[in-house]
Specification:
Blueprint: E1 10-15, E2 19-31, E3 34-41, E4 46-52, H1 53-56, H2 87-99, E5 104-107, E6 110-114, H3 121-124, H4 126-132, H5 144-158, E7 162-168, H6 174-187, H7 207-223, E8 224-225, E9 233-234, E10 237-244, E11 250-258, H8 276-284, H9 287-293, H10 302-305, H11 317-330, H12 335-352, E12 357-358, E13 363-364, H13 370-379, H14 383-391, E14 392-396, E15 401-405, H15 408-438, H16 441-446, E16 449-457, H17 467-497, H18 511-518, H19 523-531, H20 538-549, E17 557-558, E18 566-570, E19 575-579, H21 583-588, H22 593-600, H23 605-627, H24 648-664, E20 667-674, H25 687-696, H26 699-708, E21 712-715, H27 716-723, H28 736-750, E22 759-761, E23 765-768, H29 772-793, H30 796-808, E24 812-814, H31 818-825, H32 833-842, E25 852-853, E26 864-873, E27 876-883, H33 886-889, E28 897-900, E29 903-906, H34 910-915, H35 922-946
Parallel strand pairs: 6-20, 7-16, 7-20
Antiparallel strand pairs: 1-2, 2-3, 3-4, 5-6, 8-9, 10-11, 10-16, 12-13, 14-15, 17-18, 18-19, 21-23, 22-23, 24-26, 25-26, 26-27, 28-29
Helix pairs in contact: 5-6, 6-7, 7-8, 7-11, 7-15, 8-11, 12-13, 12-15, 15-23, 17-18, 17-24, 17-26, 19-20, 23-24, 27-28
The structure holds adenosine-5'-triphosphate.
Adenosine-5'-triphosphate binds near residues 119, 168, 171, 176 and 230.
Pfam families: Myosin_head (PF00063)
Keywords: Actin-binding, ATP-binding, Motor protein, Myosin, Nucleotide-binding
Family: Belongs to the TRAFAC class myosin-kinesin ATPase superfamily. Myosin family.
Length: about 950
Amino acid sequence: MAHNYDVGTRAWQPDPTEGWVASEVESKNVQGDKVKLLFRLANGEEKTIETTVAALHDDNNAALPPLMNPAILEASDDLTNLSHLNEPAVLQAIRLRYSQKEIYTYSGIVLIATNPFARVDSLYVPGMVQVYAGKQRSSQAPHLFAIAEEAFADMLRDNKNQTIVVSGESGAGKTVSAKYIMRYFSTRESPDQPGNRAKGIADAMSETEEQILATNPVMEAFGNAKTTRNDNSSRFGKYIEIMFDKKTEIIGARIRTYLLERSRLVFQPLKERNYHVFYQLVAGATEAERQEWGLLPVVHFDYLNQGGSPVIEGWDDKVEFDATRQSLTTIGVSQGKQSQIFALLSALLHLGNVKITATRTDSVLPPTEPSLVKACQMLGVDAGEFAKWTVKKQLITREERIMSNLTQQQAVVVRDSVAKFIYSAVFDWLVENINAGLATEEVSNRATTFIGVLDIYGFEHFIKNSFEQFCINYANEKLQQEFNQHVFKLEQEEYLREEIDWTFIDFSDNQPCIDLIEAKLGVLALLDEESRLPMGSDEQFVTKLHHNFANDKSKYYKKPRFGKSSFTVCHYAIDVTYESDGFIEKNRDTVPDEHMEVLRESSNPFLAEVLEAASVVRDKDALTASNAKAVPTPGRRMGVAANRKPTLGGIFKSSLIELMHTINSTDVHYIRCIKPNESKESWKFEGPMVLSQLRACGVLETVRISCAGYPTRWTYEEFALRYYMLVPSQSWTSAIREMANAILKKALGQGTNRGLDKYQLGLTKIFFRAGMLAFLENLRTTRLNECAVMIQKESTVQILQEKSTLRQGTRYCSCKRWPEVSKHDNMPKKYGKSELQQPYRKSGAAIRTRSVSIRSEPISSCSKVSPKVFFADGNLWRQELAMQSSQYRGHGGRGDNYVRGGSIVKRLSSSRVCGEARQPDEATRHYVKRLEISSRFRTSWRTRSSS
Ligand SMILES: Nc1ncnc2c1ncn2[C@@H]1O[C@H](COP(=O)(O)OP(=O)(O)OP(=O)(O)O)[C@@H](O)[C@H]1O
């Protein structure tokens, strides 16, 4: 909404360290059509902006700094409640809440979870699950559990499958969040049937629930590793379906995994580690196992020592090993099988130590090389054959077989490819095994619905981006598209339902970028084409890309100005330049056929079982790949190279298409995890870092979509309740619609913006353009200031009278602290909760019971406030505030203070009223007023989002 930028207007200025810094218009000079604005920045600096009067009223004028919200709105626990919905305002809200130790914030349907990097036990105490069970999202503070409960309730109501998408960058908190969500479902107790849980203990779990939770430590041991960004980084994506029967009891689960980072097995960057399980094994194996498997300290294994970081601070790998074993037992992997797994892992460690020596042009690997002998013995394969096919390759043509020697570097690649293949086969075997136990045919038949939790890597862009980042960002493009469509659809549906005058608008769809990647002549297809050529190379691949997409053929592709080996994709979040180096090899992901033959002839029955599981997975992938939507052109098979082996890119594409298919058939809920600082420090907030993630996870894009329409909407009742003081009391009427209309007309008549395009009247709600609410808030604050001045002049007697009005006629109730309030005030019990909540509920408003902390400005000593008392006043039910403020302690007692409309009612208990002979000081008055405003806002948006 256009603004005058008058003196005193607060606006955001860009800042390289903080992201944005607050400023205020100090002077405004208008000369003819020209306007000169002088801003004073919070850091003391000045900034002048020159513009024209006409430009001042242009909503899209990028030269003008984004406006700040009224202070009281700044820490709103739903971003869509911000009147000025701009990038800095969003950042400010999350920052302020984080500084108040509130890590969760809603952005409409999305929950933003900002990693505290510290234990916040109070958020996850066992009883907290029950606080959220059976409650509407709007009735409690933002929380993961609220989202989980919403998914559960939607599943129950619509008998429809649900998905919770948890995304964010590495270390942002996805896995921790996903685990809490799973725990929520496993420990949730129906509020209607308390004590129903096993053994009558709340939080007790059934065997199946315990098994589902036990999959976490197992998957983490085999799929997580220490990286520079996260000590426990998941190196794969995961979708777990928690299956419910018709009584909504958990009866099983099914896991799907995506893109395990295989290269980590053979290479770890500095300060990083291989998969946890190896370090656990080395630390935790018994002496006998150590002997049997030839285990040595970590430094002696090349696959474990490259990162130079064998331990993780605060972790005990031996203890973790015991936990992994315990969890394996819980999910049904026998002790014997566990030993076979660990023996296979030990064999891989020996394989990594196999020394291949270089000759001038070739390489040499004697079959007697000690590590090779050990590895092959444990794998049950022939060392001679293994050695031979590690240093040689054969090319089979129609006429003959041509043998050639490999260089040392090539031979090492072959050795490593075998190790990677076996490890990923073990991982697949584990997943298959978990699914075989938790999603049996019987369970699948009995399951009526599921809630899927997707824990998937968020958008990534580093200094050097490779094939993995390309796949990850492709996945995020798909998820972002689904998210945009969802948000946009919901938005438009509501406009339709409310029958407001609305022309459907388009949003920037990222389909062209997805096409660039996955279409039949897209990047992945060209990568597959190059991968199946015997002499295919990364350079040729990039040349093909440039040829096909550069020269403005695609808006989403750029040829970098420097370097021939890279290409840039313009993703929805940011342009990312990918280094093609290694694309072909990673995409091929092949083990030479001869090695496959050697492995197939293994005498190790467990290796045979593992390879079988892997081939089942591969066959499934290949089938999905060939069934993938993109129709292959003659001569090209998507996802399947010439020799019919599926490529990694093709497999990923097909599994992604399948995932999107599943997700699209469910109702989706979104959690965006944010990593607030790079150094993993507790409660440290780095603005620019958070901003870039908000952009990458689509929060800012959603805000943009909202702003194109009517981002704020209130019911008529809420609106009248909040702004009744803007019209004379004669206009206060029970015909709420008319009253709301009168308020709007009066308000806009007073402002400079008279246009009625600032709002729309729907059937049950009023829809506001961005900025309109801040405008109304300003009017309201001015009005309340006038009231407060009046009250200050009134005597204590009048305040007491106000209180006695409450006693005699006004019904009221408190939620949690009712007994306490009633005791102080000697209220007869008949005014209790049950009698009073009903009419309040009828009005559609939600009742809050929890304590919330509110930004204490301008009094820094204010602590917690608890909105908990509701007053009935004629036709209007109003929520009032009971608050505790350390400011009041100074006045002799922990005061409960109430605000009624424009007047302040002090001290509910009579003794306290007497003690409050003094008038509230200026700062306190200001504070009380602000609290009231904030409380109203909370109630209002909650009501809106719950309806
Ligand atoms: N809600 C939380 N409370 C306290 N600490 C948390 C919370 N969420 C995350 N953390 C901390 O952040 C670390 C990283 O979290 P997590 O492993 O869930 O990140 P991630 O997003 O899954 O990362 P990756 O993609 O690398 O797997 C955790 O080990 C924990 O220390």
